[in-house]
Amino acid sequence: MTPQMIFLMFFGGAAVWFGIVVFRTLSMVRSALALLFSQTAVGVMFLLMQAEFLGVLQIMMMATEMSVMAIFMVMFMMDPGGMGAMDMTHQKRLSLWAGGIGFVAALAVIWLADWGPANLQIPDATEQTAELGRELLGRSMFIFESAALMILTAMVAATMVAIHPSEGRKR
Amino acid sequence: MIPELIIALSVGAALFGVGLYGALSQTNLVMIIMGVELILAAALVNLVAFWRYLYPDVPAAQMFVLIVMAVMAVEMAVGFGIAIARFRSRGSVEMEEARELKG
Amino acid sequence: MTVLIVLVALAVGAYLVAVLESWAVHGRLEPARPAISALALLGRESLLARTPDRLFFEAGPVVLLLAGLLAVAVIPLAPGLIVTDLATGALFLNAALAYVLVALIMAGWGPNGAYAMIGGWRFLGQFVAYAMLIVMPITAVAMRAESLSTVDIVTSQSTLWNIAYQPLGFVLFVAAAMGLCWLPPLDLPTARGDLAGGIEAEYTGARLAVLRLARMVLIMALAGATVTFYLGGWLGPWLPAWAWSAIKILFVAGLMVSVGRLVPRVREAQYLEISWKLGIPLALANIFLVGVITLVVPI
Fold first, then answer.
1. pLDDT tens digits for range B86-96
2. Chain B residues 28-57 within an 8 A CB cutoff of chain A
3. Where are the domains of chain C?
4. C210-258 pLDDT, tens per residue?
5. Which among B20, B28, B73 has CB closest to A65?
6. Coil, strand or helix: which one is A165?
7. What's the predicted TM-score (pTM) here?
8. Domain boundaries, chain A
9. Per residue in B30-83, pLDDT tens?
């Protein structure tokens, strides 16, 4: 049991536990912040697996995204404080079975597949970041640019959809 | 059989199961988006585990993770834009009440 | 050992910044004021709201303090005097500062009171405004240093400080930093007179002391970040490295705390408009200019 295994199990368990809390708690803001801490645990797992840039990026992005999600929950949900104890679910048995089957199927693949030999020449963090930059702007430039174009289109579309109609008519 | 790889992949499988349960069982659009976020986080954990234990010298795997993170953010933004528009026209974003196109 | 020295330096620095802030607010230089008010706060009765969300109410100030301490951990005070020299130090600083938002949302939602909640959500609006303006100038700084490590960023300024190389980035970064630690004129979360204290309104006694201490640590972290990225960190002619760091950080923190009070409070909508319509195009122009200059000029 190497320390990395112990920490991976601990933070992985924390991520799954917070994920379950998201759907079990009644208070909506607690739900959003539980998702935040679940994603942060995933980010710490990245740091443990020595993907430093990705781990820090995950922690930073998820903190901001889930806080924005918190305010959207307060805007759109009927009972953001959770004091009313409403049951907001439907087709419970179907979704429990679906989740369970998904989990068991994935576990079966994990335990029965032959993953091949471990390759443990990890580049260190500065080299990783530099290599990632070179890959991003070199060989995968096309993917990067088309993803950027798609993101820009999606941003413009989301803003247009969300603008209040009376403001649109004024121009 | 690399034990750390198995642990990381199992965590990914568990997150996927929880996210799938959430995405299918919740009635509110925002909660469904949260379920999808959990599924995407599971995919990210799997990607990073494969990069670290099987192909550490391939930076394209990390680039894949970056693209998935960007797609997560954008999907959330577009989902919330749609939620705002729907809330304005109907007054709620409950999926049980979204039966206009149902046959 | 390094951790201890950095913590002691941080404590002394936070105390001095508190003295400077009380000078800016009250007009008289009273060196003992922060100590007296801290002791008074610890001795006062600790009132609780009627039905708070206990978890968030307790956790808010603590998460704020943790965010500030984590941000300080990557700031170099002298060559070798840094808690952890991460290869992605500048990005880690930004990640730690993102938890200020989480802490203020907890502190706003926890007490179950109207003014606190509005203060918390207003900070989210402010965050949407300043978030890009913190990251984009850091990108330009990292471009010159060709590394994200804070030590490399400081040593890359040995020929010319970044404030002269990238003045546009400096202005944008300082404006966004003042929004991050909600200093006036961007102090909507704890607006005196507008929100009756905002998120600080429901905290009393020891919890308020922790919240104020966390805010001082955050101001120190941001002053340290400004000095590292733009003012050359520990670089300077005659004095030893740590003395230059101390002088520069205190100077920047004093400026941040006092200059903003001359301007009226900036409303959310105005701040968002200025940041997104003016600030982000300027930040992108800054990145472009720095890229061109880095490739062409050999300093």
1. 888 888 888 88
2. 28-31, 33-35, 37-38, 41, 44-45, 48-49, 51-57
3. 2-296
4. 988 999 999 999 999 999 999 988 888 888 888 888 999 999 998 888 8
5. B73
6. helix
7. 0.91
8. 1-81, 126-171
9. 999 999 999 999 999 999 999 998 888 888 889 999 999 998 999 999 999 999
- Other C-beta atoms lying within 10 Å of the C-beta of residue C22: 18
Contact at CB, B63 and A136, closer than 8 angstroms: yes
Residue A72: which of B21, B52, B80 has the nearest Cβ? B80
Q: Nearest to residue A164, comparing CAs of B79, C60, B81, B40?
A: B81
| Continuous segment of H or E residues that includes residue B37 | helix B29-54
* ipTM value: 0.90
Of the options 2.60.40.420, 1.10.287.3510, 3.40.605.10, 2.40.110.10, the CATH number for the domain spanning B3-97: 1.10.287.3510
CB spacing of C105 vs A29 below 8 angstroms: yes
Q: Which residues contact C58 (CB under 8 A, 6 or more apart)?
A: C110, C207
What value does the mean pLDDT take over residues A126-142? Answer: 88
pLDDT score of A171: 47
- Check contact B-C (3+ Cβ pairs < 8 Å): no
Bond from prior residue into C79 cis (ω within 30 degrees of 0): no
